[in-house]
Model the fold of this input.
Amino acid sequence: MIADPAARQEIPDATVARLPQYLRALSDLADRGILSVSSEELAASAGVRSAKLRRDLSHLGSYGVRGVGYGVEMLAHEITRELGLARDWPVAIIGVGHLGHALASYVDLTTQGFQVVALLDRDCELIGQVIAGMVVGSVDDLERIVIERGVAIGVIATPAQPAQKLCDRLVAVGVRSVLNFAPCALSVPEGVDVRKVDLSTELQILAFHQQRKSPAGHRRTPLLEVAP
Amino acid sequence: MIADPAARQEIPDATVARLPQYLRALSDLADRGILSVSSEELAASAGVRSAKLRRDLSHLGSYGVRGVGYGVEMLAHEITRELGLARDWPVAIIGVGHLGHALASYVDLTTQGFQVVALLDRDCELIGQVIAGMVVGSVDDLERIVIERGVAIGVIATPAQPAQKLCDRLVAVGVRSVLNFAPCALSVPEGVDVRKVDLSTELQILAFHQQRKSPAGHRRTPLLEVAP
DNA sequence: TACTGTGAAGCTATTCACAGCG
DNA sequence: CGCTGTGAATAGCTTCACAGTA
Done:
């Protein structure tokens, strides 16, 4: 269709979830000085099939050139805009254990549309320390800090037990996007998005498939080829 | 494809991905001494709808009792078995930066069907140090260690650059399940499963939806309703 | 009665295959 | 010609609604 002036057609969730991968692949190509790429090549870089890639991109508008491919720079720019990464989103990380520390130091963030503006913890030993260039604040000041610094996205990197209450407090002061690393489901009112990242869940899914591969085997058979 | 010995019907991927959540909810209920639970209650704990839960569980068999509900202990046991968590899977973590450190210390793992049997890094400063009760080994010894310790699942917690090569080495010595935290796609031969966890991707998906909530706004407008 | 398990319907996502364009 | 963008077909997932059962 004649997409785009500001004419927003609904973009499918499955497509949105893949746009970051395409963006990453495009950045790599740009770094290597490549100016143009076909759906076949870009799909391979991102680990999907080309028909899927073309369908996904078609939801953004017609940014390809038939017979040629997609302009790397231009497509990257469009995806960046579509994902809302043209501006910097202020992020607060709640819980500065090993994981919170890792997240705070994660360089990709600062270069990709996000800025960590607050690190909060409950532990008096941590409060006041400088981590990744930020002073750790007290979780008691959560409401004040979130409001003062205009936090848009909250990252919960605490144990399960305090997670729901912390989430409620974030939502109460206007945060409508939460990334949850705590191993529990969070309930939030309509209009608030929660995404969950869970190491255990991922490993358990792998274990399920692994089990199917080695039905009764405790024995490792490293160089055995699988018979279907 | 071919159903296996114990009358295995293919369990849908979407269902497998939710079983860990159900298992967690059941563990919580068990801890609180609850013996029986309805689909409605369990679904609420896990954050899904009851029809979906019942459909999911129906793929495992008929473990519910009409008019009553599901036995907490028994259902937890069935899911544990189905996911392949009755035994302990040996896990190797490659890359002991902040993230690898966080993963190594993640208690849930050891109590839920996994055992971290190797921590590997490239950095001479780290090699030999004890982290979470384990001596960090050299990534140069990857092949020997993976074979000696029977590693079934490899966790890649390095930067993007070395990730593909490390993955290839894991696969070459028989690892067929990989959890990838590096921000890049990994390509693996048929028969090897890769799951990817990517903080940036998750935040970018949140940013997309957040942007739709506050269309042109730099201003925070918490109570504004969107007009279609 | 109060619940599960499931046929049937509806919805979303993926893939095929090719028309259409540069 | 070579490639994109997309109608049409297919596959997979979710939800409804209720028959069936302890």
In short: Chain B has two domains: 5-82, 89-202. Residues 12-15, 49, 51-52, 55, 65-68 of chain B lie near DNA strand D (CB under 10 Å from a C1').
